[in-house]
Amino acid sequence: MTDTFALKPADAPTREVREPRIRLSGVADDREMMRAAAELTRDLQKPKQWLYWTDCLVSAAIGYAALVGAVLAPNVGWALLAGVVSILALYRATLFIHEITHVKHSLLPGFRTGWNVLVGMPMMLPSFMYEGIHAIHHSRTRYGTAEDPEYLPLAHMKPSTLPIFLLVSVLMPVGLLIRFGILTPLSLIFPKLRRVVVAKYSGLQINPGYERKAPTGEFRRQWAFQETICSIWAIGVIALVATGILPLKAFAIYMGVISGVAVINQVRTLVAHLWENEGEPLTVTAQFLDSVNVPPPSFLPYLWAPVGLRYHALHHLLPSLPYHSLTQAHYRLTEALGLESTYHKASYPTLSGLMARLANNTMKPRDGR
C-alpha cells in the first residue's frame, strides 16, 4: 500500500450513520474549506511516475500470478485462497483507470498505453470506457443530474434496487465478453448496431438513461486502438474455449476473478456517495457532502477502496490530486480546519455503516412514489 497508515492526534471523529438524509439543495459553497484545500495542497499536485508504474505493475504481477495459482491449485481450498489474492491485486491494478482519467498524460508518459495493454485488455476494461464518462461526473453543473452517467438517486429508490445493482456486477464479465468478442466485430459491419454499441455499451456507467456520443479527434484514435486490442483478446478467449485449448476450469476461474473485481468495485460504488441528490445541480460543497471519506484508523478500506478511493469526498474537492497525495492532504485539512468545519461532515467510519444507511434510506417513505 502507498497511503500512510500512521494516525495523528488531530484526526477528527467520524460521523454516525443514523443521521437523516442531508438536504443538498441550496447548500452554499464553503469558501473557507475550498480555499484551504487549494492552498494547503499546492505542493502535492505532481504525480510520482515511479510510484504509479511500480504500484500498478506489482499489483498486476501478483494478480496474474495468483490467477495462475488458482488454476493450478491442487485443491479447492488453495484455489479459493489464490483466487481471493488475485481478485484483490487485480482490483487494485484495475482502479488505476480512475487515475488515467484525471492525471495529465504528459505527466505520466506511456502509462495509459501500458496500463491498457497490461491490465485493460486482459480485464476487458479499456480506459476509453471511463475516460470522458468520468469527467462528466465531476462537472460542476451535471453532477447528480440526469446527465450524469455515474449517478442515480439510490437513497430514494426501492430497496430491490440494491441487490439488482450488485447482480449486474456479477454478470459483468459475460457482458464484456459479448461486448468485445461479438458486438465489436458485428458493429463494424452494421452501422446501426455500431451507433447503439457506442451510445449504450461503451461506458462504465450506472445511469441507464445516459447515451454516449461518438468520439472525436485524438480520443477517437485511442478508442479505436483500445477497442481493437480488447476485441482481439475477447475473440481469442472465445476461440480458445470453443476449441478446447483453454480448459473450462481455467476459463471459469478467469471469469470468476473478473466478476469478483466487479463486485468489490460495485460495493465500493454504493458507498462512494450518499446518493441523496434527486437531480438538481449542486454546488461544489453540496457535491462534497454527498460524497464519502472513510479515513483511518479503519484498515479494510485499504482493500476495498485502494488507490486513494477511501478519500472519495476529498477527491471530489480536489479531483486533480494524485492518489498518493490524498492521505497527506486529508491530514493537512484535518489539522487546519476546526471540528465544526464542513470538511469533517463527509467522514464516516465503516463500509458496513454506510451500506446500512443506504439500505435504511431506500426503505423510507418516498412521497407517494
TrEMBL record:
GO terms for cellular component: membrane. The keyword Transmembrane helix applies. It comes from the Bacteria. Residues 78-339 form the Fatty acid desaturase domain. The chain crosses the membrane at residues 50-72, 78-98, 110-130, 164-190, 223-245. Keywords: Membrane, Transmembrane, Transmembrane helix. One of its GO terms (molecular function) is oxidoreductase activity, acting on paired donors, with oxidation of a pair of donors resulting in the reduction of molecular oxygen to two molecules of water. It holds the Pfam family FA_desaturase. GO terms for biological process: lipid biosynthetic process. InterPro entries: FA_desaturase_dom, Fatty_acid_desaturase. This is Fatty acid desaturase.
